[in-house]
Amino acid sequence: FWRPWRFAAGVAFGGAFATKWSGFVGILSAIFLSYIWELGRNRRAGVKRWGWRVIQAESFGIVVTFLAVPALVYLASYTGWFIHFGFHLFGPNGWFKLQADMASYHEHLQVIDPSTHKPIHPYLSQSWKWILLWRPVLYYAKYLANDLRHTIVALGSPTIFWGSILAIPYLFWSWWKKKDWRAGFVLVAMQYLPWAIVSRPQFFFYVTPVTPFFALACAYAVRDLAAYRYRIPDPVTIEGGEAVAYSRSRPFLPVAVGFVVLSVALFFFFWPVLTGGPLSSTAWKLRMWFPTWV
Length: 294
Description:
Layout: H1 4-19, H2 23-44, H3 50-76, H4 79-85, H5 95-107, H6 127-130, E1 137-143, E2 148-154, H7 158-177, H8 181-190, H9 211-227, E3 236-238, E4 241-243, H10 253-275, E5 278-280, H11 281-287
Antiparallel strand pairs: 1-2, 2-5, 3-4
Helix pairs in contact: 1-2, 1-3, 2-3, 2-8, 7-8, 7-9, 8-9, 9-10
């Protein structure tokens, strides 16, 4: 029961949920990973009836740390609301009604304005478009008379986002074939796929919590790419049996190094667009690669 890091994670998940309800997906991910890891640990230890034993041994602690603790943090985040409106409003006519009203608001948000039959916002972007960098969001723009402009665009790194299109399937393969728990962790913690079932209007900046896991997916794939060595067809006989031999050359190392160098270079290239730095109209257009970026 007493797992300090689980309690710390529960507090963090409560803060995430209190900030944005989509943080609840992170809680479900943590519960799933905890059971999976404990099942594997008990199986490797040779514990009899390891599946049922894990459920018995871990469920109480998981419920407390990943459900009760986040719920308390979420409730505590309304302290200012209770102080303002009064603690007597905790009942069904107060705080719980507020939660129901917020849920109803999100449930009934429409992508198309029923009065104009047009999208409710010019920067709408479905979740499947995020990894493609289809429609970034313009946060700020100031145009000066001397052909200079300052803009802040929510734009991800092209190498990281587009590289993830290949890296994510490789994570699936590594988790399934190599049984590498690190690949599974990045996939489950990424929390990207659940957005596909969300019907409310979406925007590119929703991908912000997912982006670090795109970077981890690319780092995982690039590391394996850099370390890959060809397997020599003829085995080498050593004392005690045969051993598989591999070549010393690493043929994909230049590709891996090039990916990292290009990622860093593009970061500096797009830096003025990300931070409102001064750019001429020509320099700005060089960074707006597609019409949907403008």
